[in-house]
Design brief:
The chain has about 850 residues and is of the alpha+beta class. It is built from 26 helices and 34 strands. α3 crosses α4. The chain starts with 8 loop residues before the first helix and ends with a strand. The radius of gyration is 34 Å and the shape is globular. Strands 10, 11, 12, 13, 14, 15 and 18 form a seven-stranded mixed sheet that branches. Strands 2-1-26-27 form a four-stranded parallel sheet, covered by helices on one side. A four-stranded antiparallel sheet has the order 6-5-9-19. It binds one RNA strand of 87 nucleotides through α7, β11, β15, α11 and β30.
Length: about 850
RNA sequence: CGGCGAGUGGUGAAAUUGGCAACCACGCCCGCCUCAGAAGCGGGUGCGCGAAAGCGUUUGUCGGUUCAAGUCCGACCUCGCCGACCA
């Protein structure tokens, strides 16, 4: 028995991390002729400490990066920090810590922890978005967008979060609540900066059709968010009032069923009506005021549909009927035209509203068979056949839509239009810890961008955080400046940019992170872009992933970048990591830290567990028991392979070894099965390394069994398997792999070796198990060499007692033979 | 309310095109080794009947297609995620 030398993961793992860093083996070169592969995990916010939930994400990305490197790609795998944001500023308000200090300390700690996980990042490309080196280019981009009319300032009703004390983009309001703190969002009219993402809607939609490597779910969410709908906009005259109301509808075929018109309280026509209808003024204004005091959440989610009549009537241009105009709470001023035709019979909302206010319900669509007739129990919203619709009676909905649209157009009253739900991206934030908006306001010249040579506009240091008002607006040394155009007194924009600006182009900055002349060099970025594999959670489906697509289109349009205007060719959504039934997070207090986990079990064991426990897209339950199995695996590999490291190299890897018997064949086969699994899980982009690690278990089980045989150390198959073991382990247990490899006498890291291509000869099996079924049920298994003929198989099957017992007294009606798999005998 | 996804042993899970359900691991049981075992090695483990051979049965429920269904089709149930007054 050889002396027990347990594997000291603590010492080994640390030593290899230091050596990889010293040798720079993960540094990607721009001039490397091999095909490029850009793999990226969404950049983290430096919140303080990493936990094993982060490790799940980075371990997968790292395995993908490592296996691609070994399969002959020039891999770039960078890491950085999404360093601006509210938590830093809240720490400043609550604990008096400077946001920059807080952030940089967190980054330092997390850098250490990311290295501790043995990840193969190219640290020469590291960036932090809160550094002036980075955010000056946010400002530069902003000015470029301003020049092209894509950044503009306007007063508009915006979402205001009273807790975070800032405005929010529409994308950052979830169910009427702030995406970050959950507070009910309020409506305010404020002058704010917007980026004109709506100019790109059609491209953002069309681009999705090409993104075959994206989950369908994410694409659907983006399509729904963009919310394209095609319909008709037409105008109605208002009786006795010098005004028209424009309404947008996707169901112009139901226009004869209009029994009222509903408008938002903010709609301009309301004021005009009230001039002529003074009796309604009190009622309408009280109603509007009652809505104003409500948050957006209450107004849209919790309140039932209600409204008041304005006293005015609109004329249906087709039926010439007069219908009352109501001010309601359920029509949104910001969508469509802020007014809708009320068709209770064929729209659920209108139906509810009509029921509540006793408005007539006029059915104009029936089922294709014509059986559906009033009174309706509920709105009939399907397409169907028109009734009670003048000359259009009997038409199908789709045809009627075309005919009525054409008629309205001929009357000069309407046209087909396309409406989108997406709004321009509101980027101003009334907070300190972000990129200052590089604009100044001059009495003489108005809004003036800061010239490029004066960028960056630096965040002032030593600012006081009171939690009241914008820190930049309160700081005269920041606010007061001179106009770049006339030299007169001017004030700076007091706001900072949404931090989603930072993450909208960082993937391009990684490709030229030290550039001081421009955001990045055209050739360098174009060489590596787009990202081949992007990895991250699904929570950014309509935030970061939409903004980054928009930004990339802008970069391509402005000539900064060549090639695809989609930044991420493939997107992989990692599943959550759950602990004690909840998502692991600091705020929930259910965090399993990286430091303690690595210390207790070792990095390789942790990585192997995170990969093995479930497919990467699945939710993973963290348990301490599961990882014990991987600790055992690491030790088992060590005990099996380490004693043979001195002799393993005597059997080369560039061809199969001589195989003396079935046991040898099975061992070599297990190795090639594992190689094959790693290859195919990577090529199919399933990344189900949980399967590949199971094959590694089988390989090591085979090896352990082989080593029990006398003379195993001299067996070429055993030596070959041990020699190849570090290669197949490398992407998953990189430290263990390199330690074994170096003990075999190699100077160069195993991570610079080529993955061995699985050999069909090694994968072939000596004997197959032919399943014999009678009437679809397994009755026997026959061991036979592959390629057995049907008749021979049948003859063998008819010698099996268990088969004969089933056929006894019956006639064989049919035989189904699947070569090398199965013989099904149908008997009756 | 709508969209999408998922339901397989005690647990995490596996299963090219429909072709042996449950690889691998955790847990549990038995044995070996041991002063000792939260170490290591070996064996067993879906459920039911049986000493065994074997027989029956099993992928949320019900039905269908097929020689053959976890996989395809239809209806339903449950859970999860996401979106929800968008005209």
């Amino acid at each position: 028995m050889p002396e027990e030398r347990p594997y000291d993961y603590r010492a080994v793992e640390r030593a290899w991390q230091e050596r990889w860093e010293r040798d720079g083996i993960y540094v990607a070169r721009d001039d490397d002729p091999r095909p490029k592969y850009y793999v990226l995990e969404m950049l983290p916010y430096p919140s303080g400490d990493l936990h094993v939930g982060h490790a799940k994400n980075y371990t997968l990305g790292d395995a993908v990066a490592r296996i691609h490197r070994m399969r002959g790609y020039n891999v770039v795998h960078p890491m950085g920090w999404d360093a601006f944001g509210l938590p830093a500023e809240n720490a400043a308000i609550q604990r008096g810590i400077d946001p920059e200090t807080w952030t940089l300390e967190n980054i330092r700690n997390m850098q250490r922890q990311v290295r501790l996980m043995g990840t193969s990042y190219d640290w020469t490309r590291e960036l932090a978005t809160s550094l002036p080196d980075y955010y000056r280019w946010n400002q530069w981009f902003f000015v470029r967008m301003f020049e092209r009319g894509l950044a503009y300032k306007r007063e508009a009703p915006v979402n205001w979060c009273p807790v975070d004390r800032t405005v929010l983009a529409n994308e950052q309001v979830e169910n009427g609540k702030c995406w970050r703190c959950g507070a009910a969002v309020e409506r305010r009219n404020l002058a704010q900066w917007f980026l004109k993402i709506t100019d790109y809607v059609e491209r953002l939609l069309r681009g999705l059709d090409r993104l075959d490597g994206w989950p369908e779910r994410i694409k659907t969410m983006q399509r729904n968010w963009i919310g394209k709908s095609e319909g008709v906009t037409f105008s109605l005259d208002v009786e006795n009032v010098e005004a028209q109301i424009e309404v947008f509808t996707t169901r112009i075929d139901t226009v004869f069923g209009m029994t009222f018109v509903a408008v938002a309280p903010e709609h301009p026509v309301v004021a005009k009506i009230l001039e002529r209808m003074p009796k309604s003024r009190k009622r309408v204004e009280e109603f509007a005021d009652s809505l104003k005091s409500k948050s957006e959440l209450e107004r849209t989610q919790l309140m039932e549909k209600t409204g008041v009549p304005t006293g005015a009537y609109a004329i249906n241009p087709l039926s010439r009927e007069r219908v009352p105009i109501w001010v309601t709470n359920y029509v949104l001023a910001e969508y469509g035209t802020g007014a809708v035709m009320g068709v209770p019979a064929h729209d659920e909302r209108d139906f509810d509203f009509a029921k509540k206010h006793a408005l007539p319900i006029a059915q104009v669509i029936t089922t294709p068979d014509g059986t559906l007739r009033a009174p309706l129990e509920a709105a009939y919203v399907e397409n169907g056949k028109l009734i009670a619709s003048g000359e259009y009676i009997g038409m199908k909905s789709a045809n009627a839509r075309r005919a009525i649209a054409a008629r309205l157009e001929a009357m000069g009253r309407g046209k087909t239009t396309v409406s989108y739900r997406i709004r321009d991206w509101l980027v101003s934030r009334q907070r300190y810890w972000g990129t200052p908006i590089p604009m100044v306001y001059c009495e003489h010249d108005g809004i003036v961008p800061v010239p490029d040579e004066q960028l960056p506009v630096l965040l002032p240091k030593g600012v006081k955080f009171t939690g009241q008002g914008s820190p930049l607006a309160n700081d005269p040394s920041f606010s007061n400046t001179t106009c770049p155009r006339c030299g007169g007194a001017a004030i700076r924009d007091p706001d900072t940019m949404d931090t989603f600006v930072d993450s909208s182009w960082y993937f391009a900055r990684y490709l030229d992170p030290k550039n001081t002349e421009k955001p990045f060099d055209h050739a360098k970025a174009s060489r590596w872009m787009p990202v081949d594999q992007y990895i991250g959670g699904a929570e950014h489906a309509v935030l970061h992933l939409l903004y980054a697509r928009f930004w990339t289109m802008f970069m391509v349009d402005s000539g900064m970048l060549s090639g695809d205007d989609e930044p991420f060719t493939r997107l992989f959504n990692q599943g959550l990591l759950i602990y004690n039934g909840e998502k692991m997070s600091k705020s929930k207090g259910n965090v399993v830290g990286i430091d303690e986990t690595v210390d207790r079990f070792g990095v390789d064991a942790m990585r192997l567990f995170l990969l093995k426990a479930a497919p990467p897209e699945d939710t993973l339950d963290w348990t301490d028991e599961g990882i014990i199995g991987r600790v055992r695996f690491v030790q088992r590999v060590w005990r099996a392979a380490e004693p043979l490291t001195g002799v393993a190299r005597t059997v080369p890897l560039d061809r199969l070894p001589e195989l003396r018997g079935d046991a040898q064949r099975e061992l070599v086969r297990a190795l090639h099965v594992a190689l094959d699994s790693g290859k195919s899980e990577t090529e199919t982009r399933r990344f189900h390394y949980n399967v590949t690690t199971a094959k590694l278990d089988e390989l090591v089980n085979q090896l352990t069994a082989a080593l029990r045989e006398p003379g195993a150390a001299d067996d070429p198959a055993v030596r070959y398997a041990v020699h190849a073991l570090p290669i197949v382990l490398a992407p998953f247990a990189p430290h263990l792999a390199d330690e074994l490899w170096s003990r075999m006498g190699y100077e160069r890291s195993v991570h610079l070796e080529r993955w061995i291509d699985p050999d069909p000869a090694a994968l072939a099996v000596g004997e197959i198990t032919l399943v014999v079924q009678v009437n679809g049920k397994v009755r026997a298994r026959i061991q036979t060499p592959p390629g057995i003929a049907e008749d021979d198989a049948f003859a063998l099957a008819m010698r099996e007692p268990t088969v004969l017992a089933q056929i006894d007294g019956k006639q064989v009606r049919k035989r189904i033979f699947v070569a090398d798999k199965l013989l099904n005998i149908v008997a009756a």
